Amino acid sequence: MIDFLVIGGGIAGVSAAARLSHLGVVTVLERETGLGYHASGRSAALFEETYGKPSVIALNRASHAYHATANGGVLSPRGLMLLGSAETADAFAADLLSMEMEEMPLADAVARVPILQTDVIDRIGYHEATWDIDTDRLIQNFAAEVRKNRGTVQTKAEVTAITRTATGWQVTTTAQVFEARHIVNAAGAWVDVIATMAGVAPLGFTPLRRSMARIPAPGGHDISAWPMLFGPGEDWYAKPDAGALIVSPAEEHLTEPHDAWADDMVLAEGIARYEAHVTEPVTRLLTSWAGLRTFAPDRQLVLGPDPAEPTFLWCAGQGGYGFQTSPAASQHLADLVSGVTGPLDAQTRAALSPARFGKS
To answer: What is the pLDDT of residues 257-266, one digit of tens each?
Structure first.
């Protein structure tokens, strides 16, 4: 009998499995051929403490030390630069305040990023305390922790049926049948599908598509030390990545759970917004892709036992915050299971609880 059967091998499921592996026997089920295939494998991979709602920010801050130090750390300096103009003044001011940025002289910004279009940009916000996350290393660190504690990770194991039993759950996959005391629902865009399969009321999660394009380094510049560039109101962003630049329209288009792909028209619109702020046009794409950012109705994570089925544990609604919140979110879930009051305050714990949806 497995103690914790974790459905989903993205960062949410693997981090939860790592923490729970200290409390019992854990198995992770991932339907794809490898971990982190869907949303986790298509992340912008940034750690920015001030990004998100208050409960998300609390998880970010509680995760910082782990990201910086555990297993040698997974962070490297990046920085975040907000590009504003007279037309975006209100959104710029709101972002500057919420993300705890300082204004930077335009000349200093151009010295760092020489392609900035100063005929358009007339104000700059900057936050130094922003880092890239080595996402693959983070996933593999958590997976190694699972295996070290005699847990298992099974890929190519799509869940096809879930049945409540006298001792817990029976979960049928394309590989085999599992018996478990607890299910951990960390299935990303499919969390409501898994809940329905288990006879648990879904919570109304919405998968939202976000497209990305990878373009050559603008003007042949060495962009390795450039910060992430951000449009006010998050209507586009650009981020250096392995010698190239990722550009996203930062769209949130409602869709169904699926293996997402970029919308060419939406991508073109986002690239145009990026091009309006720089002197170098985009002449070709190296590649493009899309991911699904899945949110609960209030856009906060859902962590903990279902009020109607306490052996059904939610680890869901990470949206765009999965990697940066994963150390604290996974520890919080394990603390709930073991009955420990962790470092999160009561208001944050309530904001993350499935009970906030009024289920009984």
So the answer is: 999 999 999 9
Structure tokens at 43: 């992340």
Q: What does the pLDDT read at residue 39?
A: 59
Task: Please classify residue 317 by burial: count the beta carbons closer than 10 Å to its beta carbon, then call 0-12 exposed, 13-18 middle and 19+ buried.
Answer: buried
User: 79-113: b or e for each residue (b if 16 or more CB lie within 10 Å)?
Assistant: bbbbbbbeebeebbeebbeebebeebeeeebeeeb
Region of residue 83 (left: phi > 0; alpha: psi -120 to 50; beta: else): beta
Query: What whole-number distance in Å separates Cα of residue 104 and Cα of residue 80?
Result: 11
Q: What is the DSSP-derived secondary structure letter of residue 324?
A: H
Check: CB of residue 29 under 8 Å from CB of residue 7: yes
Calculate the dihedral angle through the C-alpha atoms of 316, 76, 132, 39, rounding to the nearest 10 degrees. Answer: -50
* Position 76, amino acid: S
Virtual torsion, Cα 84, 87, 91, 93, nearest 10 deg: 60
What is the SS3 string spanning 125-161?
EEECCEEEECHHHHHHHHHHHHHHCCCEEECCCCEEE
**Is the domain defined by 80-128+206-292 classed in CATH 2.60.120.10?**
no
**Do 2-63+134-205+297-357 and 80-128+206-292 share a fold?**
no
Please report how many Cα atoms fall inside a 13 Å half-sphere around the Cα of residue 360, on the Cβ side. 1
Longest Cα–Cα distance in the chain:
69
36-74: per-residue pLDDT in tens? 876 555 677 899 999 999 999 999 999 999 999 999 999
Going by C-alpha positions, the residue among 183, 185, 226 that lies closest to residue 203 is: 185
Dist CA 220 CA 209 (whole Å): 30
Domain boundaries, the chain: 2-63+134-205+297-357, 80-128+206-292
Answer yes or no: is pLDDT of 294 > 90. yes
- Given a contact cutoff of 8 angstroms between Cβ atoms, the answer to whether 42 and 359 are in contact is no
171 beta partners? 162, 178
Class for the domain spanning 2-63+134-205+297-357: alpha beta
| pTM score, whole prediction | 0.95
Q: What is the mean pLDDT of the chain?
A: 96
Q: Which amino acid is at 201?
A: A
